[in-house]
Amino acid sequence: MTSARTTKQWQTLDTQRHLHPFTDFNSYAKNPGRIISRAEHIYIYDTDGTEFLDAMSGLWCCSLGYSQPEIAAAVNAQFQQLPYYNNFFQCSNEPAVELADRLVKITPEQFTHVFFTNSGSEANDTNIRLIRRYWDLKSQPKKRIILARTNAYHGSTIAAASLGGFASVHDQFETLPYVQHIADPNWYNSGGDMTGDEFGIAAARKLEKRIDELGEENVAAFIAEPIQGAGGVIVPPDTYWPEVSRILKERDILFVSDEVICGFARTGSMFGCQTYNTEPDLMTFAKAVTNGFQPLGGVMVSDKVASVITSSGGEFGHGFTYSGHPIACAAALATLDIIERDNIVERVANNVGPYLQKRWTELSNHPIVGHTRGIGMIGSIELVRNKATRERLEPDQNAGAVCREFCIENGLVMRAVGDSMIISPQLIMSHEEIDTMIEQATKALDQTAQHYAV
Ligand code: PMP
After folding, report:
1. pTM of the predicted model, to two decimals?
2. Would the CB of 347 count as within 6 Å of ligand 1?
3. What pLDDT band is residue 396 in, cutting at 50, 70 and 90?
C-alpha cells in the first residue's frame, strides 16, 4: 500500500528516486510532474484532486475509459484460479488458449496463430525473430534487410527502437545494421506543391525504389503503422496504402502491420489494416487489447508464415516469462467481450468517429491551426503562425509544448509532437463529451495564439 503524503512530498520523492521514460531527467528534477492518483470514465485526477479530461486514453491504451468493472472482476477471478503459470516446456493455460482462439477469430482471415508478449516493443522484437526464422526455413538466407519509415514508433527495446524512425533516439545507441528507413507519408510537412494524392503515390514509390535498389532477394520485410501515431498522427493520403499494397503484392517480402495504436476499433474497423485494405503477414498488437489494464502484447501470425515455421522441427529460441500470462489474458478476454457487447467498432465507424472528425475539422478555422488530420477516434492539428506559408509559431517547434501547458490549465490532456497536437480519446465518449473536449482545446488554442501574439 502507498502511504499518505502531500503532493509536494510525492513529487520530491519521485524526482529523487524515479527515472521516467522519454524524460529529460535534469529538467524533470526542477519541474516535477503531476502525480495521478485515481481515474474514472474519461477523467484522471491528481493528488490535489484536479480533474483532467484524458484525450489520450492514457498512452493510447484505455480505449474503453477507466471504469470497466468487468475487466477488474475477470482479473480478480483469475487471481483466485491461477495467478501465474508459464507457457514454456510443454505447458499452457486456459485464458491464453482461449484468447489465442478469440484473436484468430476477430483478426483478418489470414491469421491463424498468435505469439504472446508483454508489450508492443517485445512483439516487434518477436517479429524480427519470426521474419528471420521464416526466410531461413525457406532457404533464403540473403533476405535480411527490414525496411521501416522515418517518424515511425515501434517501441523501445534495442530492436524495436531500431525499427522506429527517430534520429534523436538512434543517436543514443547502436541501431541494428540490417534496418533501413524510407520517408514517411507526411504530406503537410513534406508534400511541397504536390496534391495529397500525388504525394501519397510518390511516398509509396519510395518503398518500391528502395526495394529495387537493394534487390528483392535481400529484403526480408517492411514494417509500418497504418497511421503513424507517436510520429504525430500521420494519416497518409488516400492513394498511399493502395500503392504500397501493389508494390508489396508484386514482390516477395513480408509485410508487418504494427497495430499497437490502430488495433481494436480505433480507426473505425477492428484493425487499421481493414480500414486501409492491406494484407499483412504479421500484425503487432498491444495496449487496447486489455484496455491498458494489464501489460499484454503479441504478434498475429498468418498461415503463410505459420505454415513454414510450424512445419519444420527445431526449437524457436524466443519467449518471455510472462508470455501468455493468465491474468493479462483474462483481462483481454473481458475487454474483447465489452468491445463486442457494446458494438464499439460500429460506434466508432458510424457514430462517435464521424462526430469527432466533424468537430475536429472545424478547428481548422482557428487562426493558428494550419491543418487537421484524423480518422475514427484519432486526430492531430498542426500549429502555425501563417497558414499560407506554413510558417511555424517559433523556429524550433516548441509551440506544441506551450499549447500542451494551456490544455492542462483548461483541464485537458492533449499530447504535443513538435508542433502537432494529437488526441486519441476514448471510444466510449458521448457527443457532449466530445464537445467539451473541443471547447477546452479551443480555449488552449486561443491562449497559445495570444502567447505568440497572433
Ligand atoms: N508500436 C507502436 C505503433 C506504438 O505506438 C507503441 C507504443 N506507443 C509500441 C509499438 C511499443 O509498445 P510498448 O510501449 O507496449 O512496448
Report:
1. 0.98
2. no
3. confident
